Amino acid sequence: MSISRRRFNKAVGVMAGTGLLAGFSLAVHGQARPKVVVVGGGAGGATAARYLAKDSQGAIDVTLIEPTKTYYSCFFSNLYLGGFRTLESTGHTYGKLASDYGINVVHDWAIAVDRDAKTVALAGGGSVPYDRLVIAPGIDLIYDSVPGYSLEASGVMPHAWKAGTQTTLLKNKVAAMREGGTFVMVPPPNPYRCPPGPYERVSMVAHMLKQSNPSAKIIVLDPKEAFSKQALFMEGWEKHYPGMVEWIPASIHGGVEAVDVASGEVVTGLDTFKADVGNIIPAQKAGLIAGNAGLANDSGFCPIEPATMASKMDGNIHIIGDACIAGDMPKSGFSANSQAKVAAMAIRADLTGSPTFPPRFSNTCWSLIATDDGVKVGARYEAGEEKIASVDSFISATGEDAALRKATYEESVGWYEGITADIFG
Q1: Are strands 317-319 and 132-135 parallel, antiparallel or unpaired?
Q2: How far apart are CA 419 and CA 408, in angstroms?
Q3: pLDDT tens per residue across span 144-154
């Protein structure tokens, strides 16, 4: 069937008006769609895949590589420990990304990147080619940063810093702890995933123990001298869990010298602490695939161009979420979601010629201290020449009234529903 030039031009005009022209022009000229591969299906990777597919309207072939079929969010996993949520409510699947946005979801391990050939190798065999690559592998744990700790030891003293089975293991251990027992936490050194996270966890474990084991104690052997929202947490611990929580900074305990998983002992320069339940959260670095691809520096994390999230080691690769060095932005699910949108916009512009706008980033970290006692910290950010920089910030105040704290918690619940819908469709 022939088509006149007039009818062709009319069709092109209609498609341009509906945003479908990019995909149409590729098909007309017989060109293959540009390929973007996203490694990692968490808050950053799934968001990037969804926005690339959605906003390009089919002009980009998007593949998401993620080994698990259900993603359990680290954010809000502490609320599961405290009994405020079920584990199932923190689990999310990838069906809508495939069915609603046409994303090729591959459930396999991405094990290597060939930057010269521009391919990603899969554990199951074969490789996936890309024109642009997004790496969002989250963090890997440096187990031996705590002497005596290891992957095997995490089965006895869980870190629970990757949500799912580890979180359930920790919750079950706290529930089974002897009456009057001791919960010992070793938080990680900076930088690490979710700066308020260990201290919200302390609050949620205290909430659980207050109900079932009120004579129990919590000891926090911190490698740091200060932590995020410190005044808010300490005020909350004194108010809700008086006498239960003891936070000891490194300047007092002298550093963790050894962990003995068999005896439950945590040895420091000050004393040896006997843990009925140990929660050891070691130091962290970018997910293994990023380091193996030569995208990390000596810090273990990946330097990026602030305006595009492109790797400083390879302009065809964008790194988002916990694995990247994001300037003033913390390593959080909200940050990863925000960075993913900036990366998706930059990639779409490179591959399809779509317009770009000045990148803007945002983050809020909510924490629950006790029932209806929610606090938050956050900021807006802009891309500078050297780093992503904070332009304004906010934090809850000590002494806030109960109504405001309840409203803050309810705000966090609404945010969770909204952001998970934004990530997974």
Answers
A1: parallel
A2: 16
A3: 999 999 999 99
